[in-house]
Amino acid sequence: MEIFPAIDLKDAKVVRLTQGDFNRVRVYAEDPVDVASGFIGMGAANLHVIDLDGARDGALVNIGKIKELTGLGQMFVQVGGGIRDQESIEAYLGAGVDRVILGTAAVENFAFLERMVQKYGKHISVSVDARDGKVATHGWLNSSNIDAYLFCIELQNAGVQTIIFTDISRDGLLKGVNADLYANLNTALSCNIIAAGGVSGYGDISALRQIGLHGAIIGKALYEGNIDLAKVLEGA
Fold first, then answer.
1. Which of 56, 58, 60, 9 lies closest to 36 in space, CA to CA?
2. 32-41 and 63-70 helices cross at what angle (nearest 10)?
3. Among candidate residues 64, 54, 48, 62, the one with its CA nearest the CA of residue 85
4. Residue 33 neighbours by CB under 8 Å, 6+ apart
5. Domain coverage including residue 176
6. Rounded distance, CA 200 to CA 218, Å?
7. Are the CB atoms for 214 and 194 separated by under 8 Å?
8. Could you say which of 51, 53, 129, 204 is catalytic?
9. 129 an active-site residue?
10. Are the CB atoms for 164 and 127 separated by under 8 Å?
11. Which of 23, 134, 164, 230 could form a disulfide with 42 if both were Cys (CB 3.0 to 4.6 A apart)?
């Protein structure tokens, strides 16, 4: 299973939000590059980056800092947050990002998603952020009436190769993953599923591995010291 340590950017700093709430933010580090270098030192081969300012504002607010992260040159980097047009996709790919994550754009303009998947293939992934079984958009600020499970099936049918599924109810709370949810998704879909939200300890990683999930994103559990990244990667 692929392990993706997470860096969430706000004002170019490493932060974590609780359940996507911008009023519940904690700064963990001033320099994301130092954090990413630390991940590399522990053996990380992947990095998950979210531009929280971009997710809220629909712009590439922290692309300069993300370019510094890709410039390290030692990790597969996937980036999301505010990517809602082709120009933004091209800007990130040109900045060295390996995979771009679409969220709101995929929900609000499915035809656009289909065109981007046709053009960029595996370099496009979709983040399905679910609250009470429905898809949330705009940095989790808005909720829709779209069934998250059925939306994943539509994404796969459109050619999406990687889906990042976030259970918002678990995110940032260190209460553990919803293993049954991911098991159901992994059974129903043939595309790659990456779990996000709720990974709180080694038991969660073990459960996701047993399911056979493609990958898992680890955020707050790393920063709070609940998980030793080096130890996880030894069994990755």
1. 9
2. 20
3. 54
4. 65, 68, 69, 72
5. 2-234
6. 8
7. yes
8. 129
9. yes
10. yes
11. 230
CATH code of residue 63: 3.20.20.70
Tokens of 223: 């920063």
Token pair for residue 8?
Answer: 């969430």
Half-sphere exposure of 105 (CA within 13 A, CB side): 28
Distance of alpha carbon 187 from the chain centroid: 21
What residues have CB less than 8 Å from 229, skipping those under 6 apart?
3, 5, 39, 42, 43, 44, 218, 222
- The total of structural domains in the chain comes to 1
| pLDDT per residue rounded down to tens, the chain (236 residues) | 999 999 999 999 999 876 667 777 899 999 999 999 999 999 999 999 999 988 887 788 899 999 999 999 999 999 998 899 999 999 999 999 999 999 888 999 999 999 999 999 999 999 998 888 788 765 555 566 899 999 999 999 999 999 999 887 655 445 678 888 899 999 999 999 999 878 889 999 999 999 999 999 999 899 999 999 999 998 75
Classify the phi-psi angles of 102: left when phi > 0, otherwise alpha if psi is within -120 to 50, otherwise beta: beta
Contacts of 212 (CB under 8 A, 6+ apart): 186
